[in-house]
Protein: Cytochrome c
Organism: Microvirga aerophila
Amino acid sequence: MSHVLNLARMAIALMLLPMAGCDLAPKPLNTKHVDEGDPTRGLALVAGGSYGCAACHAIPDVRFPKGNVGPPLAGMAGRSLIAGHLPNKPGVLVAFLQDPPALAPQTGMPNVGLTTEQARDIAAYLYTLEAPDGS
């Protein structure tokens, strides 16, 4: 009986061995980071109304208005493209926010005169929006 028990223990140990080197910690969805960007300031800029972001976009942290001209911003961190063809990378997003028509001439998004700092802050905020449903 102890021989069978030892074999069972050895079999279990052999089955678990490949998992010994596995990192079972969940990986964060958002791996995008905007140097010098402050997501709190970015939310304030987006929600403040000075640039009209919510007039065109549904934004998870902004209750009203819920624009539907541009795409909803929920899930922005997980998208692979900006404006349908630009890679969703921090530097590209910052440049796009500063002058959308320069990077995507067909876009309906206007140049609203963001400074580099403001664009970084807004990009940092947008990269906090991981879930496509806004949760």
Remarks:
- DSSP finds six helices and two strands in the chain.
- The longest helix spans residues 2-16.
- The CA atoms of residues 26 and 106 lie 39 Å apart.
